[in-house]
Known about the structure:
It is a single chain. This protein is of the alpha+beta class. Helix content is 26%, strand content 38%. It has helices at residues 4-7, 12-23, 26-31, 62-78, and strands spanning 34-39, 42-46, 85-95, 104-113, 119-128, 134-148. Helix 2 (12-23) packs antiparallel against helix 4.
Amino acid sequence: MADRTQQEQASPAVQKRVRDNFDRQGLMIRLGARLAHVGPRRVHIAPPVCPEVSQQRDYVHAGATSAIADSAGGCAVLTLFPEDSEVLSAEYRINLPAPAVGDHIEAVGTVLRSGRTPTVCQVEAYGVQGDGERRRVANGQQTLMRVSRSAE
C-alpha cells in the first residue's frame, strides 16, 4: 500500500474539517478510533483491538469492523466536498474474508467516484500486527449522499 494516494496529505483546512467531523462521531470515540491518515480521496481510521469490541471468539466484532470502514469512507468523501457539506451513508456492502485480529484494525476509505449525489467509495479493513504485517479482514463498497450541514 505504498501508492501515492496513501502518502499524499490533504490541505490543513481539509484535515481540520475531517478531524472536526470525526471528533463528533460518538461511536468512533467509544471504539477508541483515531484518524491515522487524511489525504485527498482517502482516509485511514485505526481503533485498538480490545475486549470491548470483541465477539465470542475474541476476534474484533464484524459490527465494529464495518462501522470503522463506513466512517473511513464517509471521511474520505469529506475531503472532496465543500465546507458546508456533510455525508450520509445510503448503502454499503461489506465482505469479511478473514477473522479480524491484530494489535489494531486499520480501515481505509477511498473515493472511487465523486458526484453531488451519489458518491461511491471502496472500503477495506486490515488486521495489523505489531511488526507491521497486515491482513485484509474486510472489503466492500459504499454509496454516500451529500447533504447540506444546515439540512435537518
